[in-house]
Amino acid sequence: MSSSPERHELPQPPVDASIIVEKTPVGYLPSPSSSSTPSFASVEDTSTTSSSTPSTCSSSPSLSPTSATDLPAPSFDTASTKTTHEDSLSSAERTSLSTTRLLFAHIGAAMTLFLATTDATIVSTALPTIASDLGASQFQYTWVGVAYMLTQTAFQPLYGRISDLVGRKAVLFTSILIFSLGSALCGAAQSIEWLIAARALAGIGGGGIVSAVWVMTAEIVQERSRAKWSQALSVTWSCSAIAGPLLGGAFSGSTGNHGFLSWRYGFYINLPICFLASVIMALALHKVRFTQTRDASWKRLLQKFDFGGLVLFMGGSGCLIIGFSFVTEFGWTSPFTLTTIILGFVILVVAGLHEKFTTRECLFPATMVRDATAAIILIINFLHNFAFTAGTFYLALFYQAAHGSTPLEAGMKLLPYSLGSSLASMPVAWFIGYWQSLKNNTSGQNLAISIGLFVSTLGFGLLNLMNERASTASQIVFPLIAGVGLGMLFHAPYQVFTKALKPSEIATGTSAFFLVRFTGATIGLAIAGTVFYARSRDRLAGLPIDLLEGHGSIDYAAVFSLEDAVRDRAVDVFSSAIQTVWTLSLFLRTMKIDQSASPAHPSSSSSTSISSSQLADKSDLSPSTASAAAEKV
């Protein structure tokens, strides 16, 4: 990035809430300018706490993940270079890489980003084969996907802080090493418990890769060139949602002899690519130093970071996931099931109270629960990723269990759903930008949200009409409608959400927004698995097959080798059970966004004032930079 000397000669403004947001550690700050990938603001850490915030929490963000297609293209806030400490290099010194070195650095970064984001969905089409090979019960079935997403979510808030202490490259290469180790253990798994534990380890590394790649590439590219360079990573992020099911289908052979098309090689293939990407980035970034804050320390991390809130939030979410998983083993009325689910809700309530009164740096801003608009957006955000993830995994299962498709064929049939959701987000982003240039308000976002909710609800309603006798046309059109509706919801809710926050809460609120979104995906997958199993178990009881009982393994392909009468009944059971999963997603019904609700900061509600989100929409500024600019206006 480049900066003129005159910029540093400007009078320094007094420390206020917006400047505090600028100085917080690295965190996700999506830009409204595009539609497919996450973005970050590379900003500095400070121990200063906003005095204007009613909450006792310090306004400081943390990193939060997303699913593969849900975020806008990156923009990066570098306005806080005036706060960079003496031991940090200047912008010019840090961005003097040649075009060739920048190109190779981005190639290596894109390779690792692709692997980390694809790994979340690569098992969706291969999971029936994996479960059959390793003798997984239905209780364990969904945990192959849940384990990766849960650990990826849980460790995200720490990555930005740790990168301030040990450096960006150290976090990136360590994350690649952890991800590679987890992938190797996944490929070598000899039991389903082994595989689940290895997936959890890979998730820790995958989350670090996603965050470190965006921060690192932001700091090596000059500000005026970031939009151009970030498009490669944006395309990578979008492609991963489409490639995951396809790759999972390609590497989904049964593995008594570890054949080349075995599902194990879907994990082993990560190893040479990670090694090659690491070598490329190590050479391209040789002797490149990245910004580290002078006042960052392990002591301050331990003193200020809200470890208690993180443990409570993830512990409550984990209890809910485990509780719903217990349904497949013990039933809804079991003391184990009820106790765990109730405990999960209680812990989440305690987490909310903790966030309200803690003096540490909050994971969630107080406005999230006080403002009706913010609360509604968070509900939509949660249900949106709930439906998207359940659709990805259980459409793949539908094609295999109800139609006898191979895993690769199932991945191909998923294209209307995944491609529709990826492509729909882009025109919505353009529409919002055009609408705001005309109206100068968030009515465009509200319209996009309402239409997206309606279309996605219509799509999942139509999916309920799909059964084992569904025509080819309906298998293409119905998932496409659901995917387009979900794609429309990837961009607009964030903008409405930040509009409801105070300037000092934008960074923290952004982190919380994506933490809720990814938690929705994790819990949604667990609940969808529970509903599918509960719906199919009793109806299979009278059939002479043992596919879903007790701890038995699952082999859906074997259904089509049964006698005709038994096969037809079993396929009907699976088809109707998956239809129930679509019914769950009908909770994405249209929810009205109250446009007249008072925003959290009065200056935003005035028609003559310029809000931070409006500034961000009309420029290359990230929301945190726009917040500071809005304060100055």
Automatic annotation (TrEMBL):
Record keyword Disulfide bond present: no
Alphabetic keyword roster: Membrane, Transmembrane, Transmembrane helix
InterPro entries: MFS, MFS_dom, MFS_trans_sf
Spans traversing the lipid bilayer: 103-127, 139-159, 171-190, 196-221, 233-253, 265-286, 307-326, 332-350, 386-402, 414-435, 447-465, 477-494, 514-534
Residue ranges annotated for the Major facilitator superfamily (MFS) profile domain, each copy included: 105-594
PROSITE patterns to which the protein is assigned, alphabetical: MFS
Pfam families listed in its UniProt record: MFS_1
GO cellular component: plasma membrane
Basic and acidic residues composition-biased segments: 1-10
Annotated region (Disordered), positions in chain: 1-92, 596-633
Location of this chain's protein in the cell: Membrane
Low complexity: bias regions: 30-39, 46-69, 596-613
GO molecular function, one term: transmembrane transporter activity
Topology term for the membrane: Multi-pass membrane protein
Protein name, entry field: Major facilitator superfamily (MFS) profile domain-containing protein
Organism from which the protein derives: Coprinopsis cinerea (strain Okayama-7 / 130 / ATCC MYA-4618 / FGSC 9003)
